[in-house]
Design goal:
Helices cover 0% and strands 39% of the residues. The chain is mainly beta.
Length: 82
Amino acid sequence: MVKEFEIHQKVRIIGIPDYVKTAEPMPILRPPNVIKLGEEGIILDRRPGGYWGVRCEKGAFLIDSQYLEAVDSPSLNSSEEE
């Protein structure tokens, strides 16, 4: 089953693939150490085959949905409710 995300949604890397493909017009394969387990990124777009374009710290990559999970961001105004 393919996970669904929304564009600009924050996601977390929950697994490291054998290689990582860049999200460029001419993608290139990079070693898996360009992303870190637990690293957070932003969804840029949806790609065929269950892949998502994700902006990470070291660039934009195509990552299979099985290696991603949504990040529940806490409310920024929660401390102002007192």
